[in-house]
Amino acid sequence: MQIAIGSYDGLVAGYQLTRTAESANGDATNCFKFTQKFNDNSHLGCVKSLAVSPKGILASGSTDETIHLFNLEREISIGTLVSHEGDITCLKFVGKDFLYSGSADGTIRMWRTRIWELQRTFKGHKGAVLHFDVHPSKKLALSVGADKKLIAWDLVAGKYSFIRNMKKVCEAVVFNKSGTRYAIRSGSTVDVYDLTATEAIYTEDIKCHINDTAFLNDDVFVVAGDSESLILFDAAKKCRLMEFASHKVRVRAVVPVRTSSPDSFLLFSCSSDETVKAWSLQLTEKTSVCLASINVCCRITSMAVHAPGGSATKLLTAPDAESVPAVVAGKKKKNLTAKKVLPDVTDSTTKRKGILKDPTVKKAKGSKKLE
């Protein structure tokens, strides 16, 4: 599982969260660690937005009006998209085929990921596009702008469906997991709407500026603001679910990752205190445990997480004790119950050729190359 962060000085850095050996007392808090994977200094301005595709392509948008593309698996830069005439404010991958980008130039642009060409430009805002989100059906998108407008976009037809005038500037809009609700944040408040309703069904004011909002499931959403805490609310029950101290100063971004359990989540948070943290949340028990933390030594502005299907569950699941060799005095004991798997005799020649061609495998003395 990989985490990318953007900074004020144009740096994009990547980290990997891994699980180490289980502690003797079964405590999981010391069993995880962050490892830095890469640094990329391609941008000339503040990195305002990050997004990761299902294939592991990282897109970063900056005040330098460019979008940089980075392959997380190969850890190399693969190109730059240049079309906007303003700061890149929001990025969103939709499936494997499209990347959407919002900008201070008032437009949202659609890029085809296979050939990285501009396919369509959505125009409707008279001011900067501050944020947008795409419905899970991939046919609808909502955007908010500095012009105090909420615009619904028909992504199939390539035009807007309706424009709603808001009472104040809205900073972000996010859908829940099924697309039945969406939340709009503005200043210190979050308003939750049913998809077909025009009035908010739930409003919450946390008394400080909100920097990020994300849904964990269809009802529960997390709010990160200028306070030191992360707060979870339940839109269905219209109540505050839980709150816990997370960082020393304001929290800049949060990214939840689902597991196989509907009440268990892996949550990543980053802060102006220059730290990134991983949390294990249990909604039923209302508990939060910090699994790992790292100081990135830069002023963080944005964050994205690449979590392939099942990776969160696999990461949080303790390894089977029977499958881990016992260690005594720094030496591994032989696992007497383990069986050695022999290659199939029908394709042994093919397998041996593959092994000898592998540069990481050393050739044994006296062995001959297969022809």
TrEMBL record:
Q: Where is the composition biased (Basic residues)?
A: 362-371
Outline the WD repeats, range by range: 81-111, 122-155
Q: Looking at the record's lineage, which domain of life comes first?
A: Eukaryota
Q: Which GO terms describe its biological process?
A: ribosome biogenesis
Which GO MF terms are attached to this record? kinase activity
What PROSITE patterns does the annotation carry?
WD_REPEATS_1, WD_REPEATS_2, WD_REPEATS_REGION
List every stretch annotated Disordered. Answer: 348-371
Pfam families, alphabetized? WD40
- InterPro entries the record matches: PAK1-Kinase_Regulator, WD40/YVTN_repeat-like_dom_sf, WD40_PAC1, WD40_repeat_CS, WD40_repeat_dom_sf, WD40_rpt
Q: Which UniProt keywords apply?
A: Kinase, Repeat, Ribosome biogenesis, Transferase, WD repeat
Its function, per the record, reads: Negatively regulates the PAK1 kinase. PAK1 is a member of the PAK kinase family, which has been shown to play a positive role in the regulation of signaling pathways involving MAPK8 and RELA. PAK1 exists as an inactive homodimer, which is activated by binding of small GTPases such as CDC42 to an N-terminal regulatory domain. PAK1IP1 also binds to the N-terminus of PAK1, and inhibits the specific activation of PAK1 by CDC42. May be involved in ribosomal large subunit assembly.
Q: What protein name does the entry list?
A: P21-activated protein kinase-interacting protein 1-like
